[in-house]
Amino acid sequence: MAHEVFGDPDGQPLVYLHGTPGAACEAAFLDAAAKANGLCILALAREQLTGDSSEAYLRQLTAEVVQLVGERPLHLIGFSIGASLALRIAARLPTPAAGVWLVSAAAPLELPGSLDGMGAGRYTFALARQYPRLFAGLAAYQGWLGRHFPAALLGMLFQGAQGADASLLGEAAHKAQLLRIQRQGFARGAAAYVRDVQAYVQPWASSLAEVRAPVQLWHGELDNWAPLGMPRNLLAALAVSELHTLPGLSHYSCLLAASAPLCAQVAASLVRAKACC
Q: In the prediction, which pLDDT does 277 show?
C-alpha cells in the first residue's frame, strides 16, 4: 500500500493512521521526534484504498498493515479519527500488536458523554449518521475548497478552536503544514473522507474488548474536536491503557506537543521488549 516515510528510514517501524480530513503527510509533525528516537513512521495513504463498505474497508486496511510490517512487531499510532481505525485494526489482528499509541483519540459516539463539549464536529457526525447523502454533498464542497482554496477550508475547520489550537494558523510553519494536509487529503476528491467518517459514526464500541495490545492515550484537556470524555471512555473500556492529559492543549496542538514524549515512550518500550527476550 502507498505510504510516506518519516523519521529514521532504518528504524523500528510504526504504522501511522492520520485524522479525517487529513493525509499521510500529517505524520511530518512527528518526523524530528521519530528520527531522534530511531523510529520509522510509515504513514498510510488511505485515500488510495477503494470501496465504501466499512467492514470490507477495515478488513482491507488490516491486511495492508500486516503486509506492510511483515514479521516485525506491529506498533500503531492513530490521530483523531485515525485512532478509531488503529483500535479497530488492533481488534482484528490474529496476533496482538506490540503497542498502540493514540493522540486526540476519537472514541465511539455511542458511548455515554462522547459528544459532551464537542464543537461543530457533532453536527457533521449527526449529518453523516442521519442524512448520508447530504453529508456527501457537504464533503464534496469541502473537497473542492481543499483543492482550490485550502486556506478557506482551514479557517472553517478551525472556527471555535480552543486552547493552543487557536493560535496555530498564526504560525507560518504550522499553517503551511496544515494547508498541505488539506491539499493532499482532498487531491483525489472527497470519497476517502466520506468513507472514513461513515466508518467512524457507525457503532464500534464492541470491538474495544478485542484489543489485546497495551494502549497509550495522549489528549489535550481543552480539546473540543474530540472532548476529554472520549479518551476517558476508552480508558474505561480497554483492558490495558494509560491516559496522559496535556493542560492548555487541544487537538492538533496535542499532536505537536506529544510527539517527543510519545516517541521516547515508544523507544523505551522497545528497549524493555528486547531486555525481556
A: 62
Q: Is the pLDDT of residue 157 over 90?
A: yes
Cell 502507498, residue? Answer: 2
- The three-point CA angle 165-171-175 to 5° equals 80
Compute the distance between CA of residue 62 and CA of residue 77 in angstroms, rounded to an integer.
14
Starting at the edge strand found earlier in the chain, the sheet holding 3-7 runs 3-7, 39-44, 12-17, 75-79, 99-103, 215-220, 241-246
**Amino acid at residue number 171:** E
- Report whether 91 contacts 185 (CB < 8 A): no
The whole-model pTM stands at 0.96
Burial class (CB in 10 A: 0-12, 13-18, 19+), 170: exposed
Q: Output the CA angle 37-43-49, nearest 5 degrees.
A: 165
Q: What are phi and psi of 273, to 5 degrees?
A: -65, -40
Nearest to 270 by CA among 3, 72, 96, 28: 72
Tell me 276's DSSP state.
H
Domain formed by 3-276, architecture: 3-Layer(aba) Sandwich (3.40)
Helix (H) or strand (E) holding 255: helix 252-276
Q: Residue 136: which H helix or E strand, with range?
A: helix 132-148
